Amino acid sequence: MSQIRNFITFILSRPGAAFGLALLLLQVVAIIFAPLLATHAPTEADPLASLQPPSGAHWLGTDVSGMDIYSRIIYATRVNLLISIVAVAVAFVIGVPVGLVVGYYRGWASTFVMRVFDFIQSFPVFVLGMALVSVMGQEIWNVAIVLAVLFVPIFARLIRAEALSLRDRPFIAAARCSGATDSQIMFRHILPNALTPAIVQISISIGMAILLTAGLSFIGAGVRMPLPEWGLMVSVGSQQMILGVWWVALFPGLAIVFSVLSFALMADALRDYVDPRRERA
Q1: Coiled-coil intervals in this record (predicted)?
Q2: In whole angstroms, what is the distance from residue 148 CA to residue 85 CA?
Q3: By the 8 A CB rule, do 20 and 264 touch?
Q4: Which of 29, 52, 81, 229 is deepest in the core (most CB within 10 A)?
């Protein structure tokens, strides 16, 4: 609890980090209280109210189907963050132990795993995402799996780099001399000292996952209508931008901006907080 209090105090002492925390808390509120905050059903179409500008009846206007943009943005917070957090969590759980093992052991198996990661990361993200989604189907969980596949190499490489630098340290040699097994050395001695970069990467990756989720939906390879999703809403609204109907794409676009910004600011704050030089600065 003291660590949590220290971290919150550290964030509140920095305006940028405090702003990021406020944005993050707004998203949490939207996720939990979406039914109370929304003024309309997120998938309720009203052709008679198509493309209405912001007004008292529809705070942020309506889209081409007459669905309330404000309510859809509120509910889309659940969809975008659910996909992003699940994808990053799965990638972390898989990538960390894989990176630890391939960093500790040297041989053809480790080399093969790294070449597989090279192969995955050599593809353009959207091309690989479209290919996997087209094979697996445009469902929420399939999009999360696609993003997890894309993020596993990132976490694995971070942990592998740390494991390579730690495996020959004197305290590891001392653990071997004391009779510790390879698994004990990896998970008791190396992993706790190698986790910091991966923990910071979590916040960065969630922001990236939000952008990728929105991007896949924008090009038609992600979430399908009528499910509320920010990128899909921007895609629908972009078709009316030339007609001067700016609100359909603008407001969900701003939601993406502020959501990604919140995680970027929190990642910067977390990186500074765990920096061992911070106390001496």
Answers
A1: none
A2: 10
A3: yes
A4: 229
pTM: predicted TM-score of the whole model, two decimal places:
0.89
pLDDT at 280: 42
pLDDT of res. 281: 41
Q: What is the mean pLDDT of residues 228-244?
A: 88
Q: Decide if 251 contacts 164 (C-beta within 8 A).
A: no
Residues contacting residue 159 through CB under 8 Å, at least 6 positions apart = 95, 96, 98, 99, 100, 103, 191, 194, 195, 197, 198
DSSP 108-121: HHHHHHHHHHHHHH
Task: Tell me the C-alpha distance between 215 and 23, whole Å.
Answer: 21
Token pair belonging to 191:
């992993």
Q: What does the chain come to in residues?
A: 281
Q: Is 44 helix (H, G, I), strand (E, B) or coil?
A: coil
